[in-house]
Amino acid sequence: MSHPREDLDDLLQHAVRLSIVGALSAAEEVEFGYLRDLLSVSDSVLSRQLSQLEEAGYVHVRKGYVGKRPRTWLSITETGRNALARHMGALQEIVSGRYQFTGVEA
Amino acid sequence: MTETTFEADPDSPGDPGELLAAAHAAKNGVWSSTPKEWKVFLLWGIWVLVFVPPFDFLNGNLWWPIVCVASVVGGVVTTVYFVSRSHRLHWARQSSWRNWLVIFILYGVIMATAAIVQSHFRYAWTTAALIAALPYFATALVIRNQERHRVAP
């Protein structure tokens, strides 16, 4: 039986990136400014993390407009959703402690 | 709105428990901002139960204008509710315009039937309200169940 840490996704091992995909999993599209405010991060931090997630194919970025105002819309891809589910499952198993001391499932 | 703050370096791996909590907080923050369609259907079902039965007991000519105003107010509030929440979020819609159309047509048929039989049947409007409210409540229930099983990471 493999240890759940093997299912952890390196890219999602960081709080901001995991929170981004977690937030995006709850809606079809989320506006950049809304996500920035929700996560209490700066524009630059969010942009940097989004670039990495987009590069990995976890997040899709779409430029659009609300009236005449330009808006950036973010959404999670199927790849991102699968990675999130796997990563969250592994974290849950680790936190539940089933593998913590014995290395085998309790 | 639920906020997740990051005091530490965002590039450093976090504790598994904290990571889980952060992801859930972010998801719940978005989720709490999305419109709850089941509540809209539920409220319209209640609207039908409140505003239709009085036709059995009150003068229709007096009650009709009140119902018209309540319809318009309800329509405006519903529209504002959805539009105001779509500026910064696009949610996965649980119901389509077809749901609304089918329910609206059903409502119209039931009300027309009540108007026809009201002179022969004492509680025509109350019965019509009970029947017409059912599709609203059923849709609300279905959507509520769908939401419960939705996007669980």
Can you walk through the features of this model?
The complex is a heterodimer of chains A (106) and B (153). Chain A has a three-stranded antiparallel beta sheet with strand order 1-3-2. Chain A contains four helices and three strands. Chain A has a single domain, classed as Arc Repressor Mutant, subunit A (Orthogonal Bundle), CATH 1.10.10.10. Chain A has helices at residues 15-24, 32-39, 43-55, 78-96, and strands at 29-31, 59-66, 69-76. Chain B has 153 residues and is an all-alpha fold. Chain B has helices at 16-33, 37-51, 60-84, 97-117, 124-148, and one strand at 89-90. Chain B has two domains: 1-33; 36-148, no CATH class. The model of chain B has no long low-confidence stretch (mean pLDDT 84). Chain B has five helices and one strand. The interface between A and B is large, with 38 and 37 residues.
C-alpha geometry of chain B: elongated
What is the CA–CA distance across the termini of chain B? 20 Å
Number of helices of chain B: 5
Number of domains of chain A: 1
| Arithmetic mean pLDDT of chain A | 85
Reading side by side through the largest sheet of chain A, how are the strands ordered? 1-3-2
Output the structural class of chain A: alpha+beta
